[in-house]
Amino acid sequence: MEDKDGRLSEKINRMFPQSVRRFLVGWPLVLSLVGCSLANLANLPIRPPEPGQLPAVQSPVLPKTDAIINFPIRADLTPFLDAVNDERIIPKKFDHWGDYIKIPKGADYKYYAERDNFSMTPSAYGLSISAPESALLRDWWKGVDRAANVFVSAALRYKIGAKSPTAAAGVPFQCGDGREWPRRATLNGGFAVDLTPNYDLSASVTGAAVNPIDPCAISIADFDIAKEVHNKLSDNVRGGLQNAATRINTISFKSHVEDVWSALRNPIPLHQDAWLLLNVDKIGHRGFSGDGHIVDDVIQISANPVIVYGAEPPPAPATLPQLGAQLTASGFRIVADAQLKYNDLSKMLAERLRGRRLSNEDNTIIIADASISGNGGNQVVIRIDFKGDASGHAYFFGKPQLNILTQTIYIGNLHYDPETARLVQKSAEWLYQSNFREFVASETVLGVTAVTNQVRDLLAPVLNQRLSQTITLEGRLTSVQGIGVFADVNALSVRSAAEGAFDVRVNGGS
Q1: What Å distances lie between residue 120 and 7, 147, 163, 237, 391, CA to CA?
Q2: Where are the beta strands (DSSP E) in 264-391?
Q3: pTM of the model
Q4: Is omega for the bond preceding 17 within 30 degrees of 0, making it cis?
Q5: In terms of C-beta distances under 8 Å and separation of at least 24 residues, what long-range contacts does 125-128 make, across chains too?
Q6: Tens digits of residue pLDDT in 215-246
Q7: Within 10 Å of residue 379's Cβ, how many Cβ atoms?
Q8: What's the pLDDT score for residue 132?
Q9: How far apart are CA 409 and CA 482, in angstroms?
Q10: Residue 458's Cα: distance from chain center in Å?
Q11: What residues does each domain of the chain span?
Q12: Is 138 helix (H, G, I), strand (E, B) or coil?
């Protein structure tokens, strides 16, 4: 056996040179060493350097929002009603019975009428109207904004007499006299109530008319004597109404509006370093309405409310603007930014991810820690520390975005930091091919309830507070929700919109 082995060894020595024999003997050792080196390379920790900061980007400017602050005013028209019932302004008796009035057709007529006291009526359409004079009254009110008009009515009794030497036999020459009852009618008047640009009450007569209940048909030579009498009575009433309206024009609301304007100009403290600035700028009104001797209007003050952080901002301009037309906006919408600190977000993210496992085939990593920070350029960087079949940390970039429906922040377009991608591919290809990135993106979802609650807590206490001895702000919140997000370098800035309504109560005002 030994002879055979010796002969085999001698044969090999004759076939291969000594250098080749040495190579063949050492090759298994080389392969072993190379395998160890590759294995060691695959197990090297993945430790990319911290990404460099991107250039800073200015956060979006807060949008201008419109709001309306309402407060009611009330006018007592009793002085006007007292005036129209004053016999020195509108007579209670219209006596033209002793002397005939000549008309161009050669006939003469006379009349007598008595009225009761005027009272306020809801509208012209609540009056008793009979044909044919009803068309006259309908034409009178046509095109008039009834919500801004006040109407008065008084019962009227009248009689008419006429004479004409050429009249045909059987033509009546009197009504409401002798054995007849006086004819019945109503005296109707109306006037428009409005505010001047200087906040003074203004009233002007819109018309006056006689509405006959018991018609009186007297015509001579195609001349309608009854209509002529009605016109004369209407002219008397119209002049008296215009005289009485001057009593209303002495009422002014300017001092009340100035008090409210001054109170709303000043910043309202929310806490030590936060202020609600209403930014009042224009004033309008809805128009008067009401039944009876009390009419109401609503003053509307437009504003651009914002929440300001830091030092107390200056008040709005002091000059009271002139009154304008009705404003179209309603309620309020306050837009404010609040900060979510990255340290707090990192704690939340770490608690959510710490201990989670991620596997691909036979390899597994366990997340040891997680953090989120600002990286400039409206981007955040997420760091994930892990151990297991691969160890180290990885960086991901992405832009925060807000899901309005779910009120959550997610990181859009999350991707590997380039140096992280290179090292993961080199040291743990299986990890790079796994759903590591998708997993981090799906788990980095942050609610904005803390921010919206912060805005709610700031506003709710000040929406109902006394601004002065006579003025109280009365507000109500209907909703607070996130509307946007921006990644500042030091914090995640969440933009919220608070919606509701503002009213002002003026104690002791008209």
Answers
A1: 142, 14, 38, 15, 90
A2: 268-271, 274-277, 280-285, 294-303, 306-309, 332-341, 357-360, 363-374, 380-388
A3: 0.71
A4: no
A5: 127/151, 127/153, 127/186, 127/188, 127/211, 128/186, 128/211, 128/213
A6: 888 877 778 889 999 999 999 999 999 999 88
A7: 18
A8: 40
A9: 10
A10: 19
A11: 74-250
A12: helix
